[in-house]
Amino acid sequence: MEIYLKLFEVLFPVFFVVGIGYYLGKKNPKIDTTFITNFAANVGTPAMIIYALNPENISFNIFIDYFWYYALAIGGFMITGVIILYLLNTKDIIRELPPLTMPNTGNMGLPICLFAYGSQGLGVSAAISALIILCHFTLGVFFS
Fold it and tell me: How far apart are CA 119 and CA 56, in angstroms?
């Protein structure tokens, strides 16, 4: 019974927010979502990352460890992506590589880690998300 309660605790907020979005989309299909998008990108995500980096949630050593672990994972994904794209005879490997190496982890990943693993999980996911965001705006732009 306890596992069902934890599962409900994790999944209910996600499905509740998705349900609100579905309802609003059905009510007005031409709804302007720019305010919600800008608010989430400019206020919500930075606030969650700053909260996650609070020393009560995660120590700096754990943050750095997971940052480097995922940097190694990105390197591995990059090597694997180059091999797969080469085997598929892709004409422009450089332009196809970023989607294979850098996932979109910030949108739903941070809140799900907070609900599923608590504040420590949010801290670890913030380390990974910080690296992904850094790679998106440096390597991703360079490859494009």
Answer: 9
